[in-house]
Predict the structure.
Amino acid sequence: MSARFVWQMAVREARAARRRLLLLTASVTAGTGALVAVNSFADNLTASVAEQAQALLGADLSFRSRAPLDSSARVSTILDSLRTALGDRAAVAHSASFTAMAYLEGSGGTRLVQVRTVDPGWPYYGAIETAPAGTWPRLQDGAVIVDPSLLAALDARIGDTLALGEARYPIAATVVNVPGDVGLQEAFGARVYIATATVPSTGLLGFGARVRYETFVKLPAEVDAQSLAEGFRPTLREDRVGVRTVADDRDDLTDGLTRLANYLGLVALAALLLGGLGVASAVQVFIRQRLDSIAVLRCLGATTRQVFAIHLIQALAMGLLGSVIGAALGIGLQMVMPLVLADFLPVDVVIRPSWRAIALGVGLGVWTAGVFSLLPLLGIREASPLATLRRLADPPRVRWDGPRLVAVLLLVTSVVALAAVQVGSLVQGAWFAAGVGMALAALWAASLLTVRAARRFTPARWSYLVRQGLANLHRPGNQTVTVVVALGFGAFLLVTLFAAQHNLLRDFRVDSDEERPNLVFIDIQTDQRATVREALATEGITNATFVPIVPMRVLEVDGRRVSDILGRGRVYEDTTATPEGEDAREGSMWAFRREYRSTYRAALGGSERVTLGRFYGDTVTATGRTAEDPAPISMEAGVAGELIVGVGDRITWDVQGVPVYTVVTSLREVEWARFEPNFFVLFPPGVLDRAPQTWVTLARVTDPTVRGRLQRVLAERAANVTSVDLGQVQRALEQVLDRVILAIRFMALFSLATGAVVLVGAIATSRWQRIREGTLLRTLGASRRQVLRILGVEYAALGVAAALVATVLAGGAGWALSKWVFETRFTLPLVPMTGLALGLATLTTVVGLWSSQDVLDRPPLEVLSREG
Amino acid sequence: MLVAESLGHDYLSGGQRLTVLKDITFALEPGGFLAIVGPSGSGKTTLLGLLAGLDRPTRGRVLLDGVDLGALDEDARAIVRRDRVGFIFQSFQLIPTLTARENVQVPLELAGSPDAAAVADDLLARVGLARRGHHYPTQLSGGEQQRVAVARAFSTRPRILFADEPTGNLDGANGHTVVDLMTSLNEEFGTTLVLVTHDLQLAALAKRTIRLADGAMVSDTTR
């Protein structure tokens, strides 16, 4: 094969067919752009996390626990030994984080806030920015620094007094930037910073308070925090104390953010694969148009391989060009990514071009162009040199021989590999590829049905203009299937997102159901029940029920001590299993480590049902005081799985130092999305009644003024009681979900953009045929308006077909997501889905008509003389 | 030497087998000039396609310089065409995306000629298109396009040239010019010429004429 000839021909032909090949170029541009934007942003994010890692922790090392750290003898010993060994060169700061009610003295406004206490000197690395600047040290003078949103919510100003429990704090400043905090945290309660030394005066951290304690350690530069932490970790795990270092934080953050970017990248990859379909379509049409020239080349002695190589080079070159343009677009687009993802980012991202991401994006773009063009390029083999002598009556038969099967195999393997590279997992890559493949296959099948329906069921009584428009859908050489698949795929992604969002949020909507409580009071001490009941009664709520909550930890599971399990860091269903060789089911450490807040009652709630075993009911006599007399309990099926327990297994609980022996008699499925008092573990009455406990109660208060008044009264009379406005929680969840979906939707738009490119390409491929038909119609007396209406009908039909197919498929995908992923009931979001379908039909019609101006503007004589 | 031995050819059309050539046998010496004539549908173009190795015969053999074209696969036949055969078509068959000069260069480059551009320029000058080399086919008249096709056909000095109705799409003056070019180059390079035409005046220029009717050879006359 003469390489020089092949190269020269590829260059010459590409030069003259620039416009047609540009469609191929444009097909991969959007997908590559999206990929480069996501991956480049991910690289920048990783680099920024690495650069700012020390500031994220604010220290070299930290110990975290749900119990006060000074209650752990091991932690105290470690801190003492560090102080002894390092003297002044080590520094220690204590912190606690908890939620509480804050109210503004004077106005009486109340808000749920996230309190964080800090010691002097912290953070040891990085700086917390405040407004006014430099006021952070004033915390230690007894002031409070708050999120700006709290000032807005309480209509407060700097200098006003904020009440937290029994303590009063002057507001010294607002927080501008805290390293490591993500913006979305604020949605669940404004951040409030106070000095650790002032916590006792609040009276907030009584029995049952949910607090996360943390001790920060600053070490001299020569001490390796990581190896120090590795030494402590196993023993501290037994005390349920976690150890974190700068490297841990950096790795965890990098992993999490990379995973987020990888999944967003999958949506971008979907756009690129769709572009691949555009490439295949463009190449197929290009080859069809080039068949005469190919026949001449073959006639003059060019071999199949030479002609194939000429066109493959062109496809790759155009893919390269499209990818390079896409990469440039992606570099620009990554500037937008922080705006889309700002609320999830714990670091300030420094935007710079990532050569790795650019190379990966361009590589994937070129590969996609090459792989998707292979099948249509193989059609070159069927081009006969005989076509130079006569127009062949029958189109060449497609041979499903070795090369074609290899091309299909390469295509499938490539899609799996591209997805695996993007998501970093072969299995997930394969699932993604299968999902995309199924969606495309369904779109393809539905498109074929559309074409057939247009051919068979167009009523003869309809006007000629409509019939002609619909007939264009099944004209010889039509691109209906390609356009419906391409447009439909982008729309399918968007509508699926709408459906998922709608169904996820529906169950959280407390405002939509007149009966559902919208206010929860938690951490009520036993002796505060009367106060709370009285406050509720004052507002006309007399039917409030109080649910007991008993905090406890798991002590033993089927004879295995949890401290041993936590010390080892792993546990398997089979006690003989080892981390190296065993594939038995592994338990989750969080389930063994966590504090359980259980309740006791004799009946199931409305949002739970037993899935296995028998619920204990109201005739239990067991006390749980000895191993021989275990109390029956009901466990939520999910957490039972994490603890590797089932019906019949025994669990010993540590209830404030007292062992309580239980046996699992039933497993339950719980609808967590319903804001009701739901629990992992249910005990029968009589076992925990005397254990230290707090109470929770729920109420439905529709008037926001009454809600605010009730919260304020309780903040004054029972300061430690936290009242949660579920409406606010619902809005916070909506805000989080909106942000997540905005990011995915942003990427999905690239698919729609690619679909539009494919549409323009499809119109361009049949341009001459349309011009000829339009001209003929005009010569026969049709007005421009009538020709326009024929085209309008065709494009609107294409858009409606794509929208319908996408909506039906998205309905199916949304149902599947609701059933198997979100585990909630499914309803169709009719309004947004209809809006999107209409939008797509309009977009298709507008783009179609805009691309068809030639049909209306060409003088008939010019076209007819060319025909002659 | 070109030899046709009991050539026959069938087509499948609408599921039915149509016989378009029956039992054609003849031999053509190197440097000869053969015209194949006959009415439309008599099988002239099919015969040309088989003789040039553009298709395989259903029956019989075509031997070009002793090589049985029917025994070769498509790519091997392409190489035979590249090395030994030139073509001129009724509809010119220039590659629209290449300039006139590049069209002439194609067979030379396929053959690996190092001075394709110079040869192409020389041939274009000889057909009177020295200054039109950078024009695309759509920028040339029909006569000019056919002259480019003639230049391309002779560019590799083929041993045999097949011409299918070379003047069919041209007016009288342009037709004469093209025929003059073909015959003069034929004489200069000693190329065998096989011409398919229904133009009896053009056929009269050939030294030998084969007449077809309904796919069968009805006469073979030599002047």
